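We both want to read discrete structure tokens more fluently, so let's practise on a single case. Once you have written the record down, we can walk along the chain together.
***
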Amino acid sequence: MRIALSVAGSDPTGGAGIQMDLQVFRSFGVHGAAVVTALTSQDTVRVHQVLPTFPSVILEQLRRLLGDIRPDAVKLGMLASDDVLRAVDLALDSLGVDPPPLVIDPVLLASDGTPLLERRAWSGLAGLCARATLVTPNRPEAFELTGIDADSRAGAERAARYFVGELGAKSALVKGGHASEAADDCLAIASESGTEILWLEGERIPGDPVHGTGCALSAAITARLAQGDPIVAAVARGRAYVRAGIEHAVAIGAGARVLGIPTEGEA
């Protein structure tokens, strides 16, 4: 049994956060371990409150967990506060000099604008990218972390290169869902000859907003990395999986729809 670890916030609707991550891991046949970084009070309409977990508790959980179980891949999602981020960064040292793949989904703000990582921690999150096998920002997140306007195709490519060349990530997927142009994703991968750029064609699927797509994408990629996929294949499988989830999204409340979770064979 392959193991994936999610370190992320709790979404009581089950449409995003650690609840979504665990659903996605299981759908790929991967055992999900989890450490909760924050509790949220939210519904399908908006986030009402964010309550970070005590950093010392997170550090203790991760050290105990990683001292007993070595995950095949790790995902970082919502980290909530600067102190939580520091605790997670410190705990990742337990993985040693040859750590498993690490996917960072740089969650900064909820769709309604509610902060999910305090502003003073944004630079720390950028620094954490040096540990990442893959970082998966949307266009606004890429701008906030790099200072590069990533709305255009050229800007997204510059931002993707920055994550790899300046921040030290092994690869970066700058997602196009928030772009004013085509919803294409830009994948930058570090190589011996420089930074390789791959453009992945996207398509906007009609319908009401869907909650949790970024969480599901990074979780699906994490699951595939845990199963040994190279980065390009893992990203391709993750994108196909989320597309299938959007196509089968359902309304369970008064706000955004939630993904219809496919099994791996349906993606």
